[in-house]
Fold this protein.
Amino acid sequence: MPSKLNTSALRFTLAKVTAELESLNQSLKIGVYSGSRASVEAKIEFHQEAIKKLTGELEGATKQIHKLYHVEFFEGKKKHYYFGSQAAIYDTFTPEQIGITLDYLRNAINLVEAPYENRKCIIRLGEVKRKHTLRGRIK
């Protein structure tokens, strides 16, 4: 997982490149620039590519894992329930129904390594797959 410093540096660089691009666009708009018009347009294109690259890197650095807790009961008809957090399980069921307390589940059980199973249920940890989009980002 990338450090906070890494994402801060990416954000800073992205803001700097975006400001430079705005300055180049403004100078091109008013017709006052150093060098030829073609060189300014080449710089603009370079900055646009840099912004796309930095945005992609920032997306990857800040991407979150979306956890999904799957609870399957054994007694009676098998039933499956899905939750976004361990605490949400206990909003629906009591520790007696699950066969384990929330504190014990959080502190003593590592669901990343293996599912938790007792005579009442099995609790698995999974990941929700989501489509990556650039909605709301600089294009």
